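Good morning N.,

You mentioned wanting to compare the apo and holo forms, so I went ahead and generated the holo version with orotidine-5'-monophosphate. This is what I fed in:
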Amino acid sequence: METFGARLHRAVAERGPLCVGIDPHPGLLARWGLSDDAEGLDRFARTVVDALGDRVAVVKPQSAFFERFGARGVAILESTIRQLRDRGALVLLDVKRGDIGSTVRAYAEAYLDPSRPLYVDAVTASPYLGVGSLAPMFELAAEHGGGVFVLALTSNPEGPAVQHARAADGRSVAQTVIDEISQLNADAQPLGSFGLVVGATIGDTGHDLSRVGGPLLAPGLGAQGATAADLRTVFGASLPAVLPSYSREVLGAGPDVAALRAAADRALADCRAVVPPMN
Ligand SMILES: O=C(O)c1cc(=O)[nH]c(=O)n1[C@@H]1O[C@H](COP(=O)(O)O)[C@@H](O)[C@H]1O
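and this is what came out, ligand included:
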């Protein structure tokens, strides 16, 4: 079985270092001339799949925008995931799950067990109930070749109050998360399956990402104000592991399929200029 890290490494080599999010904000639905209902959501998601599913390495549906429409929205999420996988994109479901371990086990089954309807290649998870509480996710990911991206240093301005706080041993809370995830990737080649989320907006915070061994998802580009050039400041020597992620910046070019493709191509060109090939 090929690990998620190996599959991601290959996808980025073939398609380039880019993740595009599917975040159907009500404002974007309106700009695309779509209704703010399940039908509009379905059309939006299908358009993104048609435009980008066969060319972008990773597509990241944001679950919240599908859950807004209840069972119909989740059914559309299921079919969006299938369509993306059929077109060869890796699907990273942005759900930012985190809970006590026994409940995390159920989340892990929902997203990382290949027999389940919402099965995806990888999910986002929150470690702020303790990294150890996510163990069932790590176990199921390892068992089935999936991936988990754990929040470390998030792109929002509220993040540092929690993430930069000092743990008992003097490290920042985020650094403890970074170090624990690094251990999970020990010896993984060519890339570990356990990633971290580090916002492109955060500047140089002095955190040590040099031993992570897995992918570094970098949201916050475009709509939140960061540019590809900012990745240099945030990631320094760890740039080869960075997977830049854009949502509104690319989606705003729709609904025209050619315009969406051109926006993704521009984003990819900006990222290629900064992010060297993965080691
Ligand atoms: O895990 C994420 O993807 C994430 C982490 C983070 O620190 N900041 C962040 O913006 N995100 C997600 O990345 C997407 C950013 O969207 P845009 O600001 O439109 O590019 C949203 O779906 C956020 O939920």
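The pocket of orotidine-5'-monophosphate is lined by residues 21, 23, 62, 94, 96, 124, 154-155, 197, 199, 219-220, 222-224, 245-249 (CB under 6 Å).

Happy to go through it together on a call whenever suits you.

Best,
F.
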